[in-house]
Design goal:
alpha/beta; single chain; eight-stranded parallel beta sheet; two-stranded antiparallel ribbon; 349 residues; 13 helices
Length: 349
């Protein structure tokens, strides 16, 4: 099974869920805002913070069109799609500044490249994992450039069928490095009923890889469910303020929701336990209080042979287990035993 090794983290089926705070484009082109998003991610307790990097002319053609959710973020009615993306670009020097800020604040910096130029740039500045967005799974040129880096890859799978996902996976696996697959539905926001989390099982069986979930739902319930179903990577969009003007803010988690999600993930992981059913140490007090033991139903005289009719089963659980009833029946009392009291092994011969 794949393992992705990082400086202070490891991603595998035997490690805790790796949580990525997806800052994405919610900086709105402001480096100060980007740094605030890093601070929020640290406060929430995520494992990594991720941004997006694209060069508009290399990312979109002159025939590119708006999605409806993007139109909410237009500065003016006649703003072109090129102008829209250009104001959300992060220049190379600014991305280096964000990366340095992450390093200073001791959180892992990740970034999604949308063109080959930025794939190579992220490699040069030492980004340890490449994240492939759902939008890029059939961008063969980009996938081949990522595979040449010989780095672990995390890829989202929105907008694509299993055959297309397999094709992308096979290209990326040419690097001989782990490729992790995230279930994703590319709509902003989605309803829980659209999440289709069970497809993670399909990915795991088909590709024998680490699986996870990239979330575009409102709230935190869906990613928590994903962790319960075996997700080892969770990616969640978040923002400083959900009412901000912009394309992704209203489909992103608030700082408080991000923090609650991380805590919820850790609680879910802790609750999963093992496949072994046993009496746990935390049950020891209640075990004694509430389980039944073998009790005297009447006064029993010394030397009397115990019969089933002399016995009852009542709390507490500190006496002889009722499943050992056959051990008790037929034995003689060594001492007088009063009615409605625990029968103890040392009282019997």
């Amino acid at each position: 099974m794949d393992k992705i090794k990082l400086n202070n983290n490891q991603i595998s089926d035997n490690d805790r869920c790796f949580v990525i705070g997806e800052a994405g484009i919610n900086h709105d082109g402001s480096i100060a805002k980007a740094k605030e998003l890093v601070d929020v991610a640290i406060e929430a307790g995520v494992d990594a913070v991720k941004f997006q990097m694209f060069d508009t002319p290399k990312y979109i053609s002159k025939d590119a069109i708006f999605a409806s959710y993007m139109k909410r973020a237009l500065l003016r009615k006649d703003e072109t799609i090129a102008e829209f993306f250009r104001r959300l670009e992060v220049k190379k020097k600014d991305m280096v500044e964000i990366q340095k800020y992450c390093k200073r604040r001791k959180i892992l910096f990740l970034c999604t490249p949308f063109d080959i130029q930025n794939v190579n740039f992220l490699d040069r500045i030492g980004v340890p994992i490449i994240k492939i967005a759902s939008f890029s799974l059939t961008n063969i040129f980009l996938l081949e450039s990522v595979a040449r880096l010989k780095k672990p890859v995390i890829m989202s799978t929105g907008l694509h069928n299993l055959s297309e996902i397999e094709n992308a996976y096979n290209i990326l696996k040419k690097s001989n490095k782990p490729v992790s697959i995230l279930q994703c539905i590319s709509h902003y926001p989605i309803q829980p009923k659209d999440a289709n989390l069970k497809v993670m099982e399909t990915f795991k069986k088909a590709f024998d890889c680490i699986v996870g979930y990239s979330d575009h739902s409102m709230g935190i319930n869906v990613p928590l469910a994903a962790v319960a179903l075996g997700a080892k990577i969770i990616e969640k969009h978040y923002t400083l303020e959900q009412n901000d003007f912009g394309a992704d803010h209203d489909a992103s988690a608030s700082p408080e929701q991000l923090k609650n999600m991380v805590q919820g993930i850790r609680d879910v992981e802790a609750s999963i336990g093992s496949s072994v059913k046993r009496i746990t140490s935390v049950e020891s007090e209640v075990y004694k209080v509430h389980r039944p033991s073998i009790i005297s139903k009447k006064n029993i005289k010394k030397g009397q042979k115990l019969t089933r009719g002399m016995l009852d089963l009542k709390k507490p659980g500190t006496g002889i287990n009722p499943l050992n009833l056959d051990f008790v029946i037929g034995r003689k009392a060594k001492v007088n035993i009063k009615k409605d009291r625990l029968i103890k092994k040392d009282q019997l011969i």
